[in-house]
Amino acid sequence: MISWRERINPTGKKKFKEALRSNDIDYILREGISQQEKGVHILDVNVGLPEIDEKTLLTEVVEQIQAVINLPLQIDTSNAVAMEKALRLYNGKAMINSVNGKYESMSAVFPLVKKYGGVVVALTLCENSIPKTAEGRFEIAKEIYDTAIKYGIKKKDIIFDTLAMTISADKNAAKATIESLSYIRRVLGCHTSLGVSNVSFGLPQRDAVNSTFFAMALGSVISICIFRKKRMDLYYVRGRIKKAVFMRIIANGSSEFFSSISMSIMSIVFNFFLLKYGGTTGVAAFSVIMYVEVLSACLRSACAMRFSPP
Fold it and tell me: What is the pTM of this model?
């Protein structure tokens, strides 16, 4: 699983806004270097403010960041002209944030994805509305998917974000998000992304809520996640995951058992390479231990089902 943090982004960041207004590129570069040192895998780059020339500044920031940082970048803008200018000079395959279910959005973004190459983040919203149900979000995802394929974009280059909403406003919000993630992975076979911390906005004990939600999302095999803090309460996550695996096996039987084993083995292999070749060493080591424990839990559960009397 890949993680990124939206630190090179003016939303809710007074100092960063001032840096953009004063064209303080050094401040932006320091923020990017800091994120790389903390083990972030992708840097989101957003310089959108109403009073600045986004087309010029986004191009400059992307060029300067790539000169000092070797992480892949996510070009984050709703301005198609700024997006194309940044993609034209980008070295490598960029992430593009974002496209949604509106015709205008798809017709503006997909040609750029096809022309310059890239991985596009697709938001399951349409006409500025986010469906409250998993079925509604999946319908939008299917429309985006079908349109992307018509433009010649491969499904491996589409990452769906089903938009986690705060449960303080809607108690069913987390359930809809998780179910829609599962639909997309199972039916479309595409990668998925999740802004984990959105679910706890406006609530106390946000880290506990985020950790629990993250554990639930792992069951839907999310590909990319965004965290609120530098790190999460990983031991809390481990306990939640073990409990979730047991409950799923009990509810769904042997098919869920084999699915859990498969997920555990793949995760162990991934985290081995993450630990060996880069990333946050502590998180990688913890992840290996966590998934070994999940696999062990699956085996113990299978033995119990196999040898328990009818």
Answer: 0.75
